[in-house]
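To: structure desk
From: M.T.
Subject: fold request, one chain
Message: Could you run this one when you get a chance? Sequence is below, nothing fancy, just the single chain.
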Amino acid sequence: MEKPTIDTPNPLLLRDMLEPDNVETLGLCADLHLPKDGSGPWPGVVILDGLGGPKDSRERRYGRKLSEHGYASLVIDSFTTRNVGARGDVVRALRVSEAMMLSDAFTGLRYLAGRSDVDPDRIGVIGFSYGGMIAVLAAYEQLARTFMPDGTRFGTHVSYYGCSVPRLDDPATTGAPVTHLLGGWDRNVSIDRVGKIAEDLQRGGSESNVRIFDEVYHQWDGEDETRRFFPLNLRRLRFRIGSDGVVRDERTGLRMNSRAKRLGLISLWIDPTGYSMLRDDETTKRSDEILLAALSAM
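Reply: Done. Structure tokens follow.
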């Protein structure tokens, strides 16, 4: 396993990337797992962390597992990169924006595509919860073009219990398929809204499949052997990304144009009924099979 440090832009807002030369760069922390057999070029996968940061039992497990299946796997650590890796979930959510996470995803794509031992036409992206939302957003051509104007694109997108917050006015996609994996008892996600997002993606040009595991909670592939409760959830958040790159609250029309406004809009709709997390080994086995199938189809 290698630990490359890769320059990544650090935009607070999507619109900041309209003038990329004015956006500061940071050294992105990541773990690179390469297959032990052969010298490539291998297919690749970028692994985006959930709000808790990369865990040995989840993101790094997938990095190791996928390298054993012949993939060059890059596990992203967006939170340590921005010096909040040791902070709580709320601080990480408020300090690391969606634009930052998208930047890291495409920085990972750029890094893998630039390696001689990776096939640039066969690089997928997977993500968990917060990172799952980003894995879906990366399928929209508007956002891919913003962060990767050279035309390099992900070959497939897999979202594990991804937050169901944003929709785009322009649903045009890169054409790569998108797989949404959800627990039927996950109260951090609006399954109805994920269905609408999947319809957006289909209309925009991507095959988009929603797989719902009945009687399963959030983070079924985590460490929680007994049910763990988190006191806030995001299922009521409804943001819209305009063709101009401006993020607006769907209900009020208010613009997310600063860190304070982002905090205010999230606080306005956050749900104090919370959600639960519980490991489910059978579901983990099933979702692993779906993941490998999606990646092998690139």
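Reply (cont.): The mean pLDDT is 96. Let me know if you need anything else for the meeting.
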